[in-house]
């Protein structure tokens, strides 16, 4: 009796408790529950039956014969069709059971079911239903797009590209634009072919009529430009769209991905946060739509902007909440992004060991859906965390993994990956070479406008014991937030040898939640006070540095600056 219940759940879990009772008697359900095969879950007045462990479903499906599968799915289909089908996923389940029971009907309901499955993150069902619908009507570009989106979410990028390449007949500009944008995303992010992605969008722009769909393709073109590290080009494309008072929500959302990211790293951090809020409101207005980003990307951009603005405690709080949510939801892509962003914030906060764990988690998650460019950024963060803990072997291991991912066109955070190489040189004791490399990276990337990230490199030079001329800080002119102006003041105080100025900067670093930066600056202040013959002030700075650094395990910079002769 319990086996009969398990067979139904193998293709139906979770099943409504009342629906299951129409298919088997109560004794069978009771036997299955008592034996630990199933459990009844209550949520907001609903009772659902599911396997006690998901692996039970895998085992049952593998062992069901084709005849039993058809029989089970036929019974499930008949049962759900006898209900009002009010649950959001009822249509998806009915279509899935119809196919597995041997049904062949292709209908608009089946296409709607595929769309609902996609939006419910039921990728397996979305692939199954849309594949069958496309077999019945090969010319349905809208169905090919649904299938491709589900395949991408399932990590099957090459198959998704093949399905979209075959969909070459467009009924209108909407279909042409949607297919072009999704193909460009696959070509760029999954296959590493930026030239092909750019050309595909340019070709679409040549034939699309002026209007919202052409504007959205243009916004996607700007996004790919900024993703390649061409911040000025990306900004020149998307900013006029963002500023248009008549911009549609879809265009705004696509343009804001690039716009918010660019603002975060060119110094307009507070503007980035405002744009994220605007874009998220647009997402709420129009809901889930084909080939349109999910609102979570704007939480990613918000965390980046908050970190670069120096709102470190708030950035950590948002990052932890977002990370916890996506892990609980089983959202692997979200876990990849939020573990990386939280790890990056924790580098600023001095929590190096936890940051490394998060970067590794991010890399593994990105690898699961074939995102090598983003994995490279995660490995760069793991390198820098390992350097701060003085672990050369681990830093070199992460560095080797990072360089194994060279060659991908996603360069929006390439500065951070290159910066990691300089950190390894510093750990090896080659401080002069590390500082030379940092300056070379600044010279290379300054024309692209990634000034906030370059501010981190100028700060590194001082942290490594080097010097920065006052006029070099012009890269951070007019930056929004607290962090960039603080770095400028640090640079000026270090250049002038002002113990009082450095002490004030240390206090400000502690206030924004960057205790290791504060400790490093206290040590610089101590050295300046020693040079000025102010032994008592120097002693106070030494003690303050020790108190700030102690909870973080005496990072490498603290050890090096502490041992520097006054």
Notes on the protein architecture:
- Strand 2 and strand 3 (46-51) form a beta hairpin.
- It is globular, with a radius of gyration of 28 Å.
- Helix 19 runs parallel beside helix 21 (372-388).
- It starts with a helix and ends with a helix.
- It has 30 helices and three strands.
- It has a three-stranded antiparallel sheet.
- The mean pLDDT is 90.
- It is mainly α and 566 residues long.
- The protein is 73% helix and 2% strand.
Overall outline = globular
Q: Can you give the mean pLDDT?
A: 90
For the biggest sheet, the summary is: 3 strands, antiparallel
As laid out across the biggest beta sheet, the strand order is 1-3-2
The percent of residues in helical segments reads: over 70%
Terminal Cα span: 82 Å
| Rg, nearest Å | 28 Å
Task: Looking at this protein, list some descriptive labels.
30 helices
Helix-strand layout with pairing:
Elements: H1 2-12, E1 15-16, H2 17-21, H3 26-34, E2 38-43, E3 46-51, H4 54-63, H5 66-81, H6 90-100, H7 108-119, H8 123-136, H9 141-153, H10 157-166, H11 173-190, H12 194-207, H13 212-227, H14 231-243, H15 249-266, H16 269-286, H17 296-309, H18 312-329, H19 332-349, H20 352-368, H21 372-388, H22 392-403, H23 414-427, H24 431-445, H25 451-463, H26 483-496, H27 499-511, H28 515-531, H29 535-549, H30 556-562
Antiparallel strand pairs: 1-3, 2-3
Helix pairs in contact: 1-3, 1-4, 1-5, 5-6, 6-7, 6-8, 7-8, 7-9, 8-9, 9-10, 9-11, 10-11, 11-12, 11-13, 12-13, 13-14, 13-15, 14-15, 15-16, 15-17, 16-17, 17-18, 17-19, 18-19, 19-20, 19-21, 20-21, 21-22, 21-23, 22-23, 23-24, 24-25, 25-26, 26-27, 27-28, 28-29, 28-30
């Amino acid at each position: 009796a319990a086996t009969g219940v398990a067979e139904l759940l193998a293709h139906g879990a979770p099943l409504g408790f009342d629906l299951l009772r129409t298919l088997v008697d109560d004794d069978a359900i009771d036997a299955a529950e008592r034996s630990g095969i199933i459990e009844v879950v209550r949520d907001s007045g609903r009772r659902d039956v599911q396997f006690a462990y998901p692996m039970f479903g895998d085992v049952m499906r593998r062992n069901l014969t084709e005849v039993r599968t058809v029989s089970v799915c036929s019974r499930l289909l008949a049962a759900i069709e006898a209900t009002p089908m009010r649950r959001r996923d009822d249509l998806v389940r009915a279509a899935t059971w119809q196919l597995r029971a041997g049904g062949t009907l292709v209908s608009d309901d089946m296409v709607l079911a595929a769309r609902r499955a996609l939006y419910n993150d039921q990728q397996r069902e979305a692939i199954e239903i849309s594949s069958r619908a496309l077999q019945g009507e090969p010319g349905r570009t809208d169905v090919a797009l649904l299938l491709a989106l589900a395949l991408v979410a399932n990590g099957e990028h090459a198959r998704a590209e093949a399905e979209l390449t075959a969909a070459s007949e467009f009924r209108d500009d909407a279909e042409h634009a949607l297919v072009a944008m999704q193909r460009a995303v696959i070509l760029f992010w999954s296959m590493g072919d930026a030239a092909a992605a750019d050309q595909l969008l340019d070709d679409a722009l040549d034939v699309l009529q002026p209007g919202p769909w052409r504007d959205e393709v243009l916004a996607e073109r700007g996004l790919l430009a900024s993703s390649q590290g061409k911040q000025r080009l990306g900004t020149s494309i998307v900013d006029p769209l963002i500023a248009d008072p008549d911009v549609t929500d879809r265009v705004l959302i696509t343009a804001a991905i690039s716009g918010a990211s660019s603002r975060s790293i060119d110094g307009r951090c507070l503007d980035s946060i405002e744009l994220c809020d605007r874009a998220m409101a647009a997402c709420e207005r129009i809901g889930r739509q084909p080939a349109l980003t999910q609102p979570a990307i704007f939480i990613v951009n918000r965390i980046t902007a908050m970190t670069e603005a120096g709102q470190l405690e708030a950035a950590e709080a948002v990052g932890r909440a977002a990370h916890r949510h996506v892990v609980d939801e089983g959202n692997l892509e979200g876990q990849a992004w939020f573990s990386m962003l939280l790890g990056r914030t924790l580098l600023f906060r001095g929590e190096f060991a936890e940051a490394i764990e998060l970067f590794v988690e991010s890399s593994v998650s990105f690898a699961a859906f074939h995102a090598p460019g983003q994995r490279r950024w995660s490995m760069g963060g793991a390198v820098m965390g390992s350097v701060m803990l003085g672990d050369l072997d681990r830093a070199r291991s992460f560095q080797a993994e990072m360089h194994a991912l060279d060659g991908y066109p996603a360069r929006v955070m390439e500065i951070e990956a290159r910066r990691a190489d300089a950190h390894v040189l510093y750990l090896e004791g080659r401080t002069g070479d590390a500082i030379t490399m940092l300056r070379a990276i600044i010279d290379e990337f300054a024309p692209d406008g990634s000034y906030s990230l370059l501010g981190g490199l100028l700060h590194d030079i001082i942290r490594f014991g080097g010097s920065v001329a006052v006029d070099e800080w012009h890269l951070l002119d007019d930056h929004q937030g607290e962090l960039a102006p603080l770095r400028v003041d640090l640079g000026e105080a270090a250049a002038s040898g002002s113990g009082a100025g450095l002490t004030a900067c240390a206090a400000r670093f502690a206030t924004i939640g960057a205790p290791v930066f504060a400790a490093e600056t206290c040590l610089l202040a101590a050295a300046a006070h020693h040079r000025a013959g102010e032994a008592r002030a120097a002693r106070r700075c030494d003690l303050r540095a020790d108190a700030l650094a102690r909870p973080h395990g005496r990072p490498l910079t603290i050890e090096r600056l502490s041992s520097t002769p006054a």
